[in-house]
Specification:
This protein is an alpha+beta fold. Helices cover 40% and strands 23% of the residues. The chain has 11 helices and 11 strands.
Length: 331
């Protein structure tokens, strides 16, 4: 993985697994803190960009800056009383000079590079990428597309819609592509019976890159959706299209990619732009990527283009080993 990152001109920058709370506020109720002798609160690393944001606040780059790092993070299990899990994370980040966030071409190029790096990470470990169940699939989405499709389906706004988006995103990570397998996992009351047909039609269709014109036409023809929401979704489709076109120019094969309207990564990770997920049916999300320009702007670091990729190394290695075992059995 380090060789993959270095091919993209990234330099190693291994940061302390702590971050100062006043610079990068907590993003989770489960964040653990350490109090130093001066009374300053430091958060313990649980993944995400908080240590990097703390570094950038002190050392703002004047030109495009690329870094990679390997770190251990602590995450709680899914159950309420589950013990903390230690994960090995590989992070790759691109941070532009001030003023670069406004360039659509620069944003698309950065998002395409994240897609390319995620694909190369699979190739480096021997994990097949594509629609086959034993491999991984590159899922590409935009955070404004899913809410608009739920509005078209008839799901009311507010907390039910957010809960449904979160549940659909978790199903996407596990590649649960059949409505029947996913319906039982949806929060009670989040998907009204009147909206179920639309959710099934729009979110459980295998959208390929070539289908983006159909997705655009679908959004344009439903005029009853809030105008701002529809325009944001149409802009999101255009951003996905631009990123995929740039990724194809970098050599990412189209059959490795699926447009995924269910993709809804947390706001604290990647709050804007195109979102990327490397998904495995057996191990869930193997990698996630996206932009966080808005996070840097909110911390007073200017309008910078900023994007990152996080690879869950343990899961990626396990998925690659399973694929090799399946290939040996088939042979």
């Amino acid at each position: 993985l380090a060789a993959v990152f270095r091919r993209h001109a990234a330099v190693p920058l291994h940061l302390p697994p702590l971050w100062l709370k006043q610079i990068a506020p907590a993003t989770s109720d489960e964040t653990a803190y350490m109090l130093d002798q001066s009374g300053a609160l430091f958060g313990l690393h649980a993944g995400g960009r908080a240590p990097l944001i703390t570094y950038l606040a002190v050392h703002p780059p004047l030109a495009t800056f690329k870094r990679y790092s390997f770190s251990h993070a602590l995450r709680r299990g899914a159950a309420a009383a589950a013990p903390m899990q230690e994960l090995l994370l590989a992070d790759f980040d691109v941070v532009g000079a001030p003023g670069t966030a406004a360039s659509a071409t620069a944003r698309a190029a950065t998002e395409a590079e994240l897609i390319k790096v995620a694909h190369e990470a699979c190739v480096a470990t021997g994990l097949p990428v594509g629609p086959a169940a034993v491999g991984a699939l590159l899922q590409i989405g935009h955070r404004h597309v899913g809410p608009a499709l739920l509005a078209i389906s008839g799901v009311p706004p507010g907390e039910p819609r957010r809960a449904l988006l979160g549940a659909l995103s978790r199903c996407a990570a596990r590649r649960l592509d059949e409505w029947e397998a996913c319906a039982a996992k949806l929060p009670r009351g989040s998907c009204p019976d009147s909206a179920a047909a639309g959710v099934r039609r729009y979110f459980f269709h295998a959208w390929r890159p070539a289908d983006l014109p159909k997705l655009r036409a679908l959004l344009e023809q439903h005029r009853h959706v809030d105008a701002d929401e529809r325009e944001a979704a149409l802009a999101g489709v255009a951003e996905v299209e631009a990123a995929l076109e740039a990724a194809s120019a970098l050599g990412v094969p189209p059959d490795a990619v699926q447009v995924e309207p269910r993709l809804w990564l947390p706001d604290e990770e990647f709050p804007c732009g195109v979102q990327v997920q490397l998904a495995s049916a057996n191990y869930g999300a193997l990698a996630r990527a996206g932009r966080y320009d808005a996070t840097l702007a909110a911390r007073g670091l200017g309008e910078r283009r900023a994007a990152g990729l996080t690879v869950y190394v343990n899961r990626l290695q396990a998925a690659a080993e399973m694929a090799r075992a399946a290939a040996r059995c088939a042979g």
